[in-house]
Structure formats: C-alpha cells, structure tokens
Known about the structure:
Strands 3-2-1-4-5-6-7-8 form an eight-stranded mixed sheet, with helices on both faces. Helix 2 packs across helix 10 (193-211). It contains twelve helices and 14 strands. Helices cover 31% and strands 23% of the residues. Strand 9 (260-266) and strand 10 form a beta hairpin. It folds into two domains: 5-233, NAD(P)-binding Rossmann-like Domain (Rossmann fold, 3-Layer(aba) Sandwich), CATH 3.40.50; 260-339, 2-Layer Sandwich (TATA-Binding Protein), CATH 3.30.310.10. It is of the alpha/beta class. The chain has helices at 8-11, 17-25, 36-48, 74-79, 83-94, 112-115, 129-142, 169-172, 185-188, 193-211, 284-290, 329-339; strands spanning 28-32, 52-57, 99-104, 121-124, 146-152, 155-161, 220-224, 229-233, 260-266, 271-277, 296-299, 304-308, 311-315, 321-324. The protein is globular.
Amino acid sequence: xxxxxxxxxxxxxxxxxxxxxxxxxxxxxxxxxxxxxxxxxxxxxxxxxxxxxxxxxxxxxxxxxxxxxxxxxxxxxxxxxxxxxxxxxxxxxxxxxxxxxxxxxxxxxxxxxxxxxxxxxxxxxxxxxxxxxxxxxxxxxxxxxxxxxxxxxxxxxxxxxxxxxxxxxxxxxxxxxxxxxxxxxxxxxxxxxxxxxxxxxxxxxxxxxxxxxxxxxxxxxxxxxxxxxxxxxxxxxxxxxxxxxxxxxxxxxxxxxxxxxxxxxxxxxxxxxxxxxxxxxxxxxxxxxxxxxxxxxxxxxxxxxxxxxxxxxxxxxxxxxxxxxxxxxxxxxxxxxxxxxx
Length: 342
C-alpha cells in the first residue's frame, strides 16, 4: 500500500494532485493554541497529511470546552489532560504517518523563536492579541508565513500573512484594544460553528500555501454566521507606518518583551500578578458590566473583583490584576486573557 493511498480523495483533486500532496507530506507546521480554532485546524491538517505538526498550548481541558473544541471528550477531562497532550493522542490514532509534537507551554517572547526552528508555516489557534502580535513579530523577523484566525459570538475572521509581501497583523490592527474593552468567549459566548468555519478556511489556506498551488486569501475574510454574511476586505500593507513590518518599525516590541502581559508569582499568597506593558487605563464600570454573567462581580473606584470557579481575579484601573487561587503563571495569564482580554 502506498503512503498516498489514504489521500486518494485529495490527490484526485487536480489543482493539488500527487505533487502537491508530496509537498504536504514534507511540510512542518507550528500550531499556537489548541482550543476552539486550533483543535479544528489540527484535525484538518493531520487528516490532510502535513508531515510534522508541533502543537503548543498552555491550558487544560474543561467541560465548557467540549461545546466547540474538536478532539476532546469527557474522558480527557477525567484524566486531567492538557490540551496539547490530549490532541496529540487523538491525532496519532487518526494518522500515524504524521509526526506530532505536543508542547505544554506558554508561548512567549523567551521561547517562540526556538519553536520556529524548522517550521515552514505558523497557524494561529490563540485567543488573545498579545500572542498574535508575538507571532506576528516573530514571523515578520524570520520572513515566515502565518495564518491569523479569530472567532467570537456569531462571527469570525482570518487573514493569510506573508511578511513583506502582504499586510501583516499590525498593518491591520496597529494597536491592541485596551484591556477590558474587547469581548471574549467567556463574556459573550461563541456559536460552535463559527470557529469550525474559520478553522476550515485557515486549513485550506495552509494546504494551498504549503503545496504551492492556487490563489491565497488576498485580504481579511469576515464571516457572520448568524446574519449570513461573508466579506473579503482588502488590507493594504502600511509600508511607511506599520510598527512591525514598516520602515517606521522601532523593533519588535512583543518579541523583545517590551509589550504584553508580564506574570509574577506573589510569594506565599497562592496568587499571580499580571501586569500589562505599557500600563493603560481601564474603565472598571464598563468591565463590570461586561463580566456580569461571567461570575460574582463587585467593584469600586479603586478595583474590580471577579470570583469564578475557585479563582478570584482583582483588577485595577491600570489594567494590572492579581489572580488568586493559583501559583501557575501560565494559568493566571490564561484566566486574565479569558475574562479581561488583552
């Protein structure tokens, strides 16, 4: 039996063919995040026959994940498995030909360049702007293509980024939204078909890019599944003013650790402080309104306190937060991302 036999329905598709499939089999992809988007992306790429898939995720599986995150089930929760490990176990049973490398880690400026070694393409399965800006910095620096994806509520977006050939993420979004201003899945929810749809487009783009065939997405695709709208928006590269890929770039702020959330373990308190750089003003009343259904919320002019599950998150007007109930810095950053945002 040929190694191509399992891909016969793919190789029969003339624009891809055996030549394209052989390129896929020799490809190497980094997936950052294996949640709603990432689990679907991992499933599509492994079934399609990428040669090597590195999956990095800092989180573990919770019951609420099962509504939208492919690859996971109740047994994984009972076993207490991290997402990347559970995903790898499932994927190896789906396609033993693919080399799958799970990493339980927080992707940050200290490790992302090591993760890029030998990689041809980066897939975005993350859930926050800080990580995406970090990916963007690293990929722009190393001239690596990456595929952005995001989904929330009833809509999602994706963009295929080829540094210095197309607009990068910071050409589109020069600055991250202020902390607490953007909705998250934990505050407004998400329809499970939305990440599946966005991930399908991301995966199709990845196959085309790795195989070197067909026309890639020329801009930002925006889909609203509740209103049934599909738009492709042109995004121009900001050659002069982009803070990442433009001539005005002062370096790679996120890759150099000058931007983003910094976590510090508070000695003897079973708590982690999250500090956002640079400090930005945060409206506690607006944040309280957004979090009203996320847990028990109280606030005054000095701080906001959210109690959810076994954690207590105290947020200050400068967007600094103390996450009580854990000494795991990666988990604290994940909770901050889920409830407060970037």
